[in-house]
Give the backbone structure.
Amino acid sequence: MAVSGPFGSSRVVKRGAQLVVSAVGLACGLLVSGVAGAADVDEQYRQGLYQRETGQPYSAIETLDSVLAANPGLNRVRLELAVAYYRTLNYAKAQEHAQRVLDDPKTPEAVRLSVLSFLKQIELEQRAATAERNKLEPAVSVGLFADSNVNAGPDTALLGNGLVLNDSSLAKSDWGYLAQASLTHTWQSQSPVRMGENTARYGWTTQFSGYQKTYKRYGEFDLGVLSVATGPTLVIDKLGRANLNMQADYLTLGGEYLGTFSSLSPSVTARVGRDGELTLDAQWMYRNFKREVDEGRNGHQQAVGLSYGQLFLSGRLALQGGYKVTREDAVDERFSNRGDEVFVGGRYRAWQGGDLFTRASWRVSDFDGAEPTFGVARHELEQRFELGASHRFQSGFLEKWQFATTLTRVTNKANLSLYAYTRDTVFFTLGRTF
């Protein structure tokens, strides 16, 4: 869960930069005096600092720049202007003004040391921004799994109305292996964009991925997915982010073409305080099945969700909860339904490189059309509980690889016993992002 926000990866770097910035301010204790209209200059200077420290960096730039235009020799103003540019992610301008102070032979030695540290910080962040501009990330994972109910067989053979299922329709257990690979390209604009008093950057993410889940005995349930996803992103420093994901999935079942799913998924995330995030997301999907037996399932699905995440214990503990409503409109009314889901989850950094995580969800589904033979529509409550652990190796021949294990129990309660089942799955995976 990315509760740390879009700029979370540089949080430690920027905290270090704040110390450097404070040092620059303290070291530059030069009085704004000896210039024409000193009182007015001092007032403008203080106004610029107030604007910068109250979340108005662009207004601060305009104020401090006007002071400097009339008094180009005021190095303290120039340094505070460099800090304002730094706050807006304009590293080139920040570097330019800081370097001019450093090159001035009248600059005191204590100030020079602080400016050198500030310039070094700018250089580090420039490198990080350049590395993020065009990033290509391949990833692979392989694993084993065990499944107690491959075919989602009902818990009982007695269906009512004198109907009894044969043994082949009851739950079947099996094990197998899985593999997944992806290639993700991320582009991020190099130049920041002003949005009011906030700084934003545009980006674009594209991913190609493949997934294969293969059973040892019941090959008719083997699942394959080939996906391509792409879409723009907008990251606003300290406020949040937004993205639009366009995706197409090609699915196979038992080695046969199952269908193609096309989806459009926008989301908006807002920062709440220092360590919280509120996310609103939606999805529109068209499911086009190709097997004759599935033709009645063709149709559209819409979903809207709201979730909140919060970091605790200096980021070691992350908690999240949310609600989602889904509407499926299929060709055959018996497959059309409305679903309401509530979920909670958490992740805890238990040791160096190791996480413990859990998730629980409850989904109620009400179907529109009556089921053949039974003459009534389905009503279901799906309960899903997940526990897991992961470890990222820090050294050795598995360095940077991550091992994870997950145990999931799904209990589906239904008014029709044909659809009531319990399913347990255990996964063991080893993967890495390069």
